[in-house]
Amino acid sequence: MARLVVNPHHKMGHINKDIYGHFAEHLGRCIYEGLYVGEDSPIPNKNGMRTDVVEALKEMKIPVLRWPGGCFADEYHWMDGIGPKESRKRMVNTHWGGVVEDNSFGTHEYFELCDQLGCDTYVNLNLGSGTVQEMSEWIEYMTFEGDSPMANLRRKNGREEPWKIKYVGVGNENWGCGGNMTPEHYANEYRRYQTYVRDYRTEEEKKEGIKPGIKKICCGANVDDYGWTEGVLETCFAGYPRPKTGHMDGLSLHYYVHPEGWKIKGSATDFDEEVWYKTLAKALYTEKLIERHGTIMDKYDPKKKIGMIVDEWGNWFKVEPGTNPGFLYQQNTMRDALVAGIHLNVFNKHCDRVKMANIAQMVNVLQAVILTEGEKMIKTPTYYVFHMYRFHQDAELVESSIESEKIGADKWQVPNLQESASVAEDGTINITVNNLSADTDSPVELFLTDTEIHEIKAEIVTNEMHAMNTFENPDVVTEVPFTEFKQENGKVSFVLPACSVMHIAVK
Ligand code: AHR
After folding, report:
1. 216: which of 13, 64, 229, 246 lies 20 to 30 Å off by Cα?
2. Domain range spanning residue 132?
C-alpha cells in the first residue's frame, strides 16, 4: 500500500493559472481549420471561430493563449494581417510546409478568439526579422487608447478600444529559427527591443492607479543549454551599463519529449513498453531542467521575481502517415495523458519559479488537446488531463508526497506513482495522482494531516497504454467518475489502476 500524504495546512506557493496555458501557431491546421474557419464556413462559427472548439476549450478553462508562433513569430509582419481580408498580403510559410498564408487570421481575429475563450493574451513579437519600429508600432496599435497614428489605424479597421496584453515574448528561439544568435548578441537585442515595448495604460487605469502591466518575456534556452541561460542573464543583468530592474518578467524554456531522439521521433501510436517508460522518464526530466536552469536564475534573481516560462512543451512524434510532414499532425494516446499529468504535477511543485507554461500546440499540432477533421472534432486524452487539473489554477500548492517504487526498463526507470496537491479558495483540497505503470494497479492510502474528510469525489482517465480517440470512436478515452474509495478509521484507501491520471477533490 503506497502512502499518499497531503498536508493542506502547509502552503508552499501560489499556482499561477497560466501554468495551464496553451499555444497556437500559424502551423499546419492549428489556426486555419482548427480554430478559424471564416464567417462563410458551413462549420458552425462565431465571427469565423469554430463554435465546437471554443466551447470545448472554455470547458477546459484555458487561462492564456500564446500566438502567433513559435518560429512563425520571427517571420510575422503584423501589418500583413490587418484591414480588409481580400487585400491582405499573402506570404509563404517557409517554416511550416511552404504553404501560402493568406493572413486572414491576424491581430483582430486573435483578440476576438481570446475574447470568446475568456482567456488572457500572450503575443510573441518579431525580433528575428522585424524592426524595432515595426514591433513598437504593433504595441501602439494594440494597446494605445489616445489619438495616435497606430491607434487611429486600429479604429479605421473597426476596433475603437485598445486590447489588453498580459505577456509579450521578445523573439522566439533566437538561438535557432529566430535568428541563430549568440546569447550575448540576443541579450543585447533583447535589451534594445524590450525598451520600446511601451506600456500604454488607459486614462481609467491611470486614475485607478493600476501599474504598467505588460509582462516581458526574454527568450530562454532549449532543453539543457545552460550556457544560453547563463550568457543571456549575464548580459542582461550583470553587463555594463546595468539595465533598470523590471526589464524582464520572464525567461522562457522549451522542452519537447522525443522518446526515440530528435531524428527518429517515433510513432505517436505504435510503441512498446520500453518506449512507454522511455517517454515517461523523459517527461520527468523536465523537473531536472527546471531545477538546473532555476539555479542559474537564482544567481541573478534570488528573489524569484522573474518567472520561468515553459512556453513550449509536450510530445513531438512522427506525423500521422499520409499527412504533410510540415504540419506536425500527430495522434494522442494514454501515453500523452501521462506525459501531460507528469508535466503539470512538476510545474505545480515548482510554482515558486514556473509562472507560465504553454503546451504545444492547442489544436491539430503536436500534443494537441483537440483534433479536427472537417466538421468533426475530438477531445484527446491530453484534453481530459487539462480538464481534471483545472482545479489547481490559482490555488495554493500544499505539501504532499507519495511512496513509490522504481519501475520500467534499465536506463529508463521511473517512479510508479507521482502526485501534486493544492488548496482552492473555497478550501477544497485537490490532489492529482498518476500511475505510470503500463500494467500494474497500485493500492494507495491517503492521509490528510489534521483534516476531517466530509466529502471525497474523484475523476479518472485510464485505459490501455495505446488507447486513443478517433473520429470514428471519439469516446474511447474520457474522464469518468471514480467512486471506489474505502473509508475506515479516518483512513481513505483506493486502488489506482495501471496507466491512469486521477483527480481527487476532498472537502
Ligand atoms: O511548436 C513547433 C515549433 O517548435 C515552434 O515553432 C518552435 O518554436 C519550436 O522549435
Report:
1. 13
2. 2-399
pLDDT over 90 at 260, yes or no: no
Ligand 1 atom nearest 256 alpha carbon: 4
Q: 72: CA distance to ligand 1 center in Å?
A: 8
Domain harbouring 271, CATH code: 3.20.20.80
Closest CA to 471 of 339, 329, 325, 358: 329
Among 75, 109, 189, 312, the one annotated catalytic:
312
Residue 410 has pLDDT above 90, yes or no: no
Q: Whose CA is nearest to atom 9 of ligand 1?
A: 70
With the most atoms of ligand 1 within 8 angstroms of its CB, the residue from 22, 23, 25, 258 to mutate is: 25
Cis peptide bond prior to 361, omega within 30° of 0: yes
Distance separating alpha carbons of residues 428 and 456, to the nearest angstrom:
10
Expressed in angstroms and rounded, the spacing between residue 20 Cα and the centre of ligand 1 is 18
Residue 212: band (very low, low, confident or very high) from pLDDT cuts 50, 70, 90: low
CA distance 355 to 371: 27
Is the domain of 415 the same as that of 276? Answer: no
Tell me how far the alpha carbon of residue 341 lies from the centroid of ligand 1, in angstroms. Answer: 21
The predicted pLDDT at position 205 comes to: 77
**Do residues 429 and 4 touch, judged by C-beta distance below 8 A?**
no
**In this structure, which residue's CA is closest to atom 4 in ligand 1?**
70
Q: What is the pLDDT of residue 245?
A: 58
Which protein residues touch ligand 1 with a CB less than 6 Å away?
A: 25, 69-71, 172-173, 312, 360-361, 366
Domain count along the chain? 2
Q: What is the mean pLDDT of residues 136-149?
A: 96
For a substitution probing ligand 1, which of 312, 315, 330 has the most ligand atoms within 8 Å of its CB?
312
Q: Cα of 186 to ligand 1 centre, how many Å?
A: 18
Alpha-carbon Rg for the chain in angstroms = 23
Amino acid at 405: E
Reported as a single tens digit per residue, the pLDDT across 416-467 is 999 999 999 999 999 999 999 999 999 999 999 999 999 999 999 999 999 9
Q: What is the pLDDT of residue 100?
A: 95
Helix runs in 302-371, H state only = 334-349
User: What is the overall mean pLDDT for the chain?
Assistant: 96
The residues with which 215 forms a beta bridge, in sequence order, are 167
Burial class from Cβ neighbours inside 10 Å (0-12, 13-18, 19+) for residue 42 reads: exposed
What pTM, to 2 d.p., does this model score?
Answer: 0.97
Take atom 6 of ligand 1 and give the residue whose Cα is closest: 70
Indicate if 405 belongs to the active site: no
Residue type, 429: I
Annotated catalytic residue: which of 25, 137, 173, 396? 173
Question: Of 399, 417, 434, which closes a domain?
Answer: 399
Q: What tens digit of pLDDT does each residue of 57-68 get?
A: 999 999 999 999
Whether 189 is catalytic is no
Which residue has its alpha carbon closest to ligand 1 atom 7? 70
The number of beta carbons lying within 10 Å of the beta carbon of residue 291 is: 12
